[in-house]
Amino acid sequence: MSKEPREQSTRNRVLGIVAVILGLAIVALAGLAMGDNELATFFDEKIGTLFALPPRQSLYVLGALCTFFGGWHLYRGFRSTGILLGAVGFTLVASFLIWITKGQSLNLPGLLKSTLTAATPLTLGALSGIFCERAGVVNIAIEGMMLFGAFAAIAVTSATGDQWVGMLAAILMGGIMAAMHGILSINYRVDQIISGTVINILAAGATRYLNIRLLEPAGLSTPGAISILRIPFLADIPIVGKLFENTPTVFMMLILVPLVSWILFRTPWGLRTRAVGEHPRAADTVGVNVFRMRYINVIIGGFLAGLGGSYFSLGLGSFEDNMTHGQGFIALAAMIFGNWAPLGSFFAALIFGFAGAVQGKMQAFRIALPPEFLQMAPYILTMIIMGGVVGRVIPPAADGQPYVKE
Fold it and tell me: Structure pTM?
C-alpha cells in the first residue's frame, strides 16, 4: 500500500474513533443534565416557542447518534469524511446548545444572526487571503490591513460625516497596504511572511499613535455606528427574518462570496489567477503577465481586508487600539479550512462565528466557566480545527514562492 492511501486510512480510523469518543462524552454529559422537568426552550420573537426539549433524553439520543456515526465510519466508512464531520458537528452543536439552555430560553434566530454577523469579517478576511494565495502570494498581513481599514473608516467618517465615504476610505487603505506588501514580496522578493509581519506590526503601532495624537484630541474618534439596513418583506419572515436586518457590510459579504467563487472558477480571469498560483512559469509561457496578475489580486485582497476592517469600527461607531483582536489570523484559518475556496471559507467562518456568538450567550446564561475561558473559545477552536485539517488541505503549488522571470 502506498504512503498516501495508508495515511488516509489512518486518518479515517482516527476520525471514527474520535467521533465515538465524542458520542460517549455526550452521553456522559447527559448524566450532568439537571432534572427532567427543566426544559431547554428555543423561541422566536415573532411566533413564540419553537420547541422545548428535555435535556437528559435529548443528549442521550444525540450522543447515541454521534457514536453510531463514528462506529459506522470505522466499520464501513462514509463516501466522504465531510459527511462524518457534518453529522458529528451537528450533534455536537445541538448537544451544546441544549446543555447551556437547560432550564432557560434561547432566542434561536438571534443566535443565527449573531453567528452570521460574527462570521462577516472572518469571511471578508478569508476572501482577501484567497485572492492573494490563489495568485501565489502568502498574505498574513490581513490583520494589519483590517486594522488600517478600521482606522481609516473612522477618521474619514468623522471628517466628512458620511459613513459610506468612510467605508470607501477603509477599502482604499486596505488596498494601499496590500500594494506595499506586493512591492516587498513581488518586486523585491522579500520573504512574504516577514513582509506581512512588518505590516501587522506597523498597523498596531501606527493606528494607536494616530488615534492618540490626532483623532482623540480633535474629537474625531467616535462618529457613531453605521445604520442598520432592513430588507422589506424578507425581514418579516419568521425565524430567518432577523438575518435581513443587519449592517451593510454583512449584505456585501453575502454578495461577495458567490461573486468571488464565480470569478475564480468560472471566468478567464480566475483561470489566469489560479494558473500563476499553481505554475507561474507555464502561465508566463502562454502570455500571462505573472507580476501584473499577482499585483492586482493582492490589491483586490487588500480592498476586501479593508472592508472587513470597516466592519469593526463602523459597527462600533468608534476606533479602539487593536480592535480587530486577531480576527485576521482566524480568517486565515478559515481560508485554509475552506481549502482556499470562497464557499468553503464562508462555512468555516460560520463555525468560528458560532463560537463567538455562543461565547456571549454563555456569559448571559452565567454558565459556571471562567470568563477568560469563554474569551479563549474561538482561538481554541481555531487550533483544534487547524490541527485536524492542515494535513488534508493542499495549498496552491506556487504559494509563497517568488517568481523570477527568465
Answer: 0.91
105-107 and 229-230 beta bridge pairing: unpaired
Q: How far is CA 342 from CA 63, 202, 293, 331, in A?
A: 32, 28, 19, 12
Give CATH 1.10.3470.10 domain extents, the chain. Answer: 111-389
> Could you please report the per-residue DSSP string of 281-313?
HHHHHTT--HHHHHHHHHHHHHHHHHHHHHHHH
Q: Which own/partner pairs from 7-13 qualify as long-range (CB within 8 Å, at least 24 positions apart)?
A: 7/391, 11/81, 11/391, 11/392, 12/73, 12/77, 12/81, 13/74
Pick the more confident residue, 263 or 85. Answer: 263
Distance of alpha carbon 113 from its chain centroid, rounded? 15
Q: How far from 287 is each of 216, 292, 401, CA to CA, in Å?
A: 51, 12, 20
pLDDT at 20: 93
Q: Which amino acid, residue 206? A: A
Instruction: Tell me which CATH code domain 111-389 carries.
Output: 1.10.3470.10
Grid cell locating 369: 466557566
